[in-house]
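Open question from group meeting: does this chain pack into something compact, or does most of it stay loose? Before anyone orders reagents, we agreed to write out a predicted structure and look at it together. Recording both the input and the output here so the notebook holds the full record.
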Amino acid sequence: MPLIRAMYANLKRPPRGVVEWSADAVRAAAIVGVVVSLFTLPFTDFAVLSMSLPAAMLSRMIGLRAGLDLLTCVTVIVAAGSNVIDLYRAWTGWDLIVHAVCTGVLAAVALVLLDDARVIEPTGRRRTPIVVATSAGLALSAAWEMVEWFGYRFITDAIFVTYDDTIGDMIAGGAGALVAGALASRWRLTRADRAPL
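Structure tokens returned:
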């Protein structure tokens, strides 16, 4: 239960500064948007949007630095929203940009969780975050591509799935995670005053 208590302490901590207030505002807007989408959009769109909420909430609960918290919230919401309004088909290259950034921020979250669980060495060491973040990013990319394939195969053929798209998405995700790992090897990912998990 110490993990739950620490996450709750980070969640209930009042925001400090413009960036933390902004991250909480984006989080609140996402929650409202998902609830509204349940009644106004097809169920598949609601499901896609709701997938952004765990990451948006987790970034607050693990005590990410304010800027990274805001970036995580915005990124996962943009990633889900782009699917709902079909930006991935409309804008060439948007898919790769979103995969790189989204996988990068999720790899940073994975680094914090693995560090707190003492699965890896502290993220201040130079090589560990680069290797672990890249590995986590590639694993997350593979998992996401399997979810896309499952959705295409068993739910709706409106999901765009091709071999080239899958490989390109995984390369972009791996690159984003590599960048996240390189940044984590230089800078702390969490607030100094967070409750340790």
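Observations to bring back to the group:
The chain has two domains: 1-85, 92-190.
The longest helix spans residues 127-154.
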